[in-house]
Specification:
- The chain is of the alpha/beta class.
- The protein folds into three domains: 6-187, inorganic pyrophosphatase (n-terminal core), CATH 3.90.1640; 199-350, no CATH class; 357-479, Diaminopimelate Epimerase, Chain A, domain 1.
- 43% of the residues lie in helices and 16% in strands.
- The protein has 17 helices and 15 strands.
- The protein has a six-stranded mixed β-sheet, with helices on both faces.
- α2 (38-53) runs parallel beside α5 (137-148), α2 (38-53) packs across α11 (302-314) and α8 (209-215) crosses α9.
Length: 480
């Protein structure tokens, strides 16, 4: 990115590492507060592992959002130092108004709202580095961790997991780019990461071939994603054996010729149902293997690891995800596998509902809205919107919004914008931040992915105003 200042960002990482080290030496009690998605759990795990290695006392708390009551409750625990990860930059004024702890540090990659100088913060956007594409919160936390101790370079693997969990691999060959490359370089040099070019399928080393294909939702493949029976039929018709003796084969077991056969079969199938076949290109790309993890473990492939953490975070099993992130490869990993299975069944059910309910999609000029008020759990809007946005035939010209009723009242929504709209001037985070305030709510996020919570029963007027705001953004971009 033109004007990006990587050196100043690293220098700031060193400063905050020094602050944290001083707190450790003074035997401070740390509280880590992080977001509930894969990036947030990865970030918290990096910080927790870093503090554990320094024998510091710490507690981890996972939250979906920061509110007055949440922060007031945190203040009552009287920590000496609070480390916010993957959350905080959108709440700078609120954080400044609270007396939370002697030391408060925000390590985030979401655009800041409020005065960035009001609090200790490390955010790539402050250095003209795109936090939506070039560095996730886990990466931000890792850059601090590596400055605390060079022995923490193996934690770069968790940084890669966080970046992939935030879908920062939407680049050529599905590779991580920008400052994320620093994490990959450290992973390679420390021997904790191996990089290959291969099929990018969920569970490529752990799941039977047909299940790996069915579990793949990015990109979304209609009638294949979530449908093991159809995937089994496709492989059988292609002459690809799914078993070797009594053992199910994995994607990693396939020969190059078999991989080509499978891709050709998928392309042929998508063409037969008049679905955009170019999405198949997203099934081939850069694969990140975490070499310190045992073969056959769901934590060995970085994307599968990220999906596991995301499932834990989105289903109120954050403690399970954090335990895995901190190294539990027994009970917590077994529980996480069960969570993933149920999570994917839920998402498959949502997709089935959507395909059978055409009226569920409300179309405005710039946005298509999935009205899931009576169908979708509020914790699942982000995951569902990401899956839908990867379904190439749905819309390449409109933002996707998934909304539902919030368990805390009002409406919860998640939004995703195609790159075409972002290039045309759309910034979802900015628009949602402004419009949500008019409806007694709050919103924010990146230009390409954002969310909001509004206090209304009927979101119709809010959606119309958001649509107008996005149109205005594109109009201003054209005239700028």
């Amino acid at each position: 990115m033109p004007g990006a200042d990587r050196d100043s960002f690293i220098a700031r990482s060193k400063e905050l590492a020094g602050t944290i080290t001083d707190c450790i030496r003074s035997q401070s009690r740390f509280l880590i507060i992080s977001h509930h998605d894969a990036d947030g759990l990865s970030a918290a795990s990096i910080l927790g592992s870093t503090l554990a290695r320094e024998k510091a006392r710490f507690t981890i708390r996972i939250v979906e959002e920061l509110r007055d009551d949440v922060l007031d409750e945190i203040a009552l625990t009287h920590p000496d130092a609070i480390l916010f990860s993957d959350i905080g930059s959108g709440y700078l004024d609120l954080l400044k108004s609270k007396e939370l702890a002697k030391t408060v540090i925000v390590m985030d990659h979401h655009p800041s709202t409020g005065d960035p100088s009001s609090i200790l913060q490390l955010n790539p956007h402050d250095y003209k580095i795109d936090g939506a594409r070039l560095l996730s919160a886990a990466g931000v936390c890792y850059t601090v961790s590596r400055e605390i101790s060079q022995h923490n370079k193996d934690l770069s693997a968790l940084g890669v997991v966080g970046a992939l969990g935030d879908m920062q691999d939407k680049n050529e060959k599905r590779a991580l780019i920008g400052l994320n490359e620093l994490l990959v370089e450290d992973g390679l040099s420390s021997g904790s990461i191996r990089v290959d070019s291969d099929l990018v399928l969920y569970g490529r080393e752990t799941r039977p071939i047909h299940r790996a294909l069915a579990y793949t939702t990015s990109p979304y493949l209609p009638n294949l994603s979530g449908r093991e029976d159809n995937c089994l039929t496709l492989l059988s018709n292609s002459g690809i054996p799914v078993k070797e003796g009594d053992r199910f084969r994995t994607v990693a077991d396939l020969s190059q010729n078999e991989k080509k056969k499978m891709l050709d079969a998928i392309i042929g199938y998508l063409a037969s149902i008049e679905f955009q076949t170019t999405v198949v290109m997203d099934l081939v790309g850069t694969v990140y293997t975490l070499t310190n993890e045992p073969a056959g473990s769901p934590t060995r492939d970085a994307r599968e690891y990220a999906s596991m953490l995301n499932a834990c975070g989105r289903t109120a099993n954050q403690s399970v995800g954090i335990s895995v992130g901190l190294g539990d490869r027994k009970t917590a990993l077994q529980e996480a596998n069960e969570v993933v299975s149920n999570y994917r069944k839920t998402l498959a059910g949502y997709m089935d509902w959507l395909t059978k309910t055409p009226g569920a999609i409300q179309k405005l000029k710039t946005v298509w809205i999935i009205r899931g008020e009576n169908q979708i759990q509020d914790s699942m809007t982000g995951a569902f919107s990401s899956i839908i946005s990867s379904a190439g035939n749905l819309s390449q010209d409109n933002a996707i919004i998934v909304l539902t009723k919030s368990k805390e009242g009002g409406i919860k929504l998640s939004a995703r914008a195609p790159s075409k709209m972002v290039k045309a001037g759309v910034n979802l985070g900015s628009a949602l931040s402004v419009v949500a305030k008019k409806y007694s709510g709050f919103g924010g996020g990146h230009d390409v992915a954002a969310g909001a919570h509004i206090q209304v029963e009927d979101p119709t007027e809010f959606l119309r105003e958001l649509d107008a705001a996005l149109q205005s953004q594109m109009h201003e971009h054209v005239n700028s």
